[in-house]
Amino acid sequence: MFKTINNILFSVFSLNLIAIILIWGDVYSQNEIVPVSHPIYEYLKIMQIKRIIPDYNSGMTPISRREVAAYINRIGESRNLTRTEKNQLEDFKIEFEYELYNSLNNSVSVLKEFNELSLFGNKKQKYLYNYSDTNATFFWGLTGNLYSLNEKGDMGDNSIFLGDFGMGIRGTLYNRIGYSLNLFSGKKLGDNNSGLQFAVDNDPVLKANPDFINGYHNYDFFTGSLRYQTKTNWFSLTLGREALNCGYGYIDKLFLSNNTTPFDFMMLDLSYKKIKYTFTYGSINGDSVGTPLKSKNIAFHRLKVQFSDIFKAGYFESVIMSNNPFSFIFFNPISFITSADLNTGAKETTDNNTLIGVDFEINPVKNLALQGSLLIDDINFSTIFKNDITSFDNKIGYQIGTMWASAFNIPDINLNLEYTRLNPFIYSHRSNKDSYTNWGLSLGHDLPPNSDEIALKLKYQITSRLNINLLYQFQRSAEGIYYDSSKNVIINYGGNINIGVGDNQINSKFLLGDRINRNIFTINVFFEPIKQYFLEIQYQYKFQNFIYLSQISHESYLYASLKAFL
Known about the structure:
There is one protein chain. By secondary structure, the chain is an alpha+beta fold. It has helices at residues 2-24, 40-49, 65-75, 83-95, 97-101, 116-120, 195-202, 204-207, 328-331, 337-342, and strands at residues 60-61, 107-109, 125-127, 129-132, 136-153, 158-173, 177-191, 218-229, 235-242, 245-246, 263-272, 275-283, 287-288, 291-292, 296-306, 311-322, 353-365, 368-377, 395-404, 413-422, 437-438, 441-442, 451-463, 466-479, 481-483, 489-492, 514-530, 533-546, 551-565. Strand 17 and strand 18 form a beta hairpin. The radius of gyration is 24 Å and the shape is globular.
């Protein structure tokens, strides 16, 4: 009930604010959000590193279709593109044609002209139906997906075959509000005896569908948003459910990533020249010892400053609070969240889970970028330099990485190298209700606490519609939770994001505990043989050394997917 009240208050407030703004705001059309999973973001990043669009800032995504179109326009003016990059650009120009040219000459509607080209044409953007006039645009499409997950190894063999079908709509109304809605429903088509749990453990969408594993074997999900944005981009307001990414990480992100399912939020963006500020208040899912919480919310700020085309920096601040349907203390868009947390009456910032972070990106020479990120969980300024048990309040995570476009002077090969370290108990919390998770999955980096990782990723864009990714990860982790006869925690080595109790009971030394080393090799092939029809195959081999048990395990994982967007 409290969660329902929270969502109603949230929606009413946001919609009224949109209505007020529309009375006086300067507006422009096509403000729908481009999902963070769209390949355009990786393309824009390469163009930034090559200094074709040096002002592109990937520190907070997604952005609107209009913003993407503006970058596409500028990229089209460059003479420093490879043949493959030019072909990619032509595909993006077709997809974003309306935003670029205010026309639909390179699109086709199945319901208007049903024929072979409208289904399998390779040169036009296909829709089930599209419409535009001076007051509104409307694009309607269907999606279908068949995919299988298979695992073989010392832990057992698991497999499952799934299929889903859905629809998506997007457009603008009266040249003022961009809207989008994507929904799908699916079901299990086949599995072995342990396939259900295996699927839930490997697919965040299934994790967010408890009934899937409780006998129904069906799942559904949606994303959608309303977005208002001024013509000069100085102000935007978004209300919806979308995946959000925050941070400069090239392989995975320390602050906000898409390792979990999208959540409901309201987002306010303010921009002035080289400065952009984002405030977000959202609702996420949590539980306490398996019991669903009445409410669990997140509020965060993000400040991005582009000091020059070479140097960018950002500041991130977040709080997780549970069983509080709506908090105006944290809803204030101009505040210092750690100070606001102290103003709740607590002597220290431990009642809620507060995190602050800073990051930067340097593009010192063409084709090369470097980034660094620092995250502090539950900062306590009074103990930050102490060397006793109270210093455990300040849990640290950091990341450094580099991105090399046209690596080894070979066109269309891009190389990423990244090191990430998460100290014990980071992202977790002494109250498990306030862990930095959504549906039990990390909102930040996928690495568990009390771990570090060296990751190397190589991508070869063979053609505009065929690429291959090679990823190697070496991880060191330490975990383990031990209880007394009364089920009280006596030792917790801080390696479980969902169990943070006991962080002040031991010396939280990095990698102290039950040690595990992992070598993970992943190859991913992505192919678009016909425009808007996609084939993806991913193979992963994982070698784990359970040092504390003197045991070794081998696992192989195969994912295959066939998707169509019409």
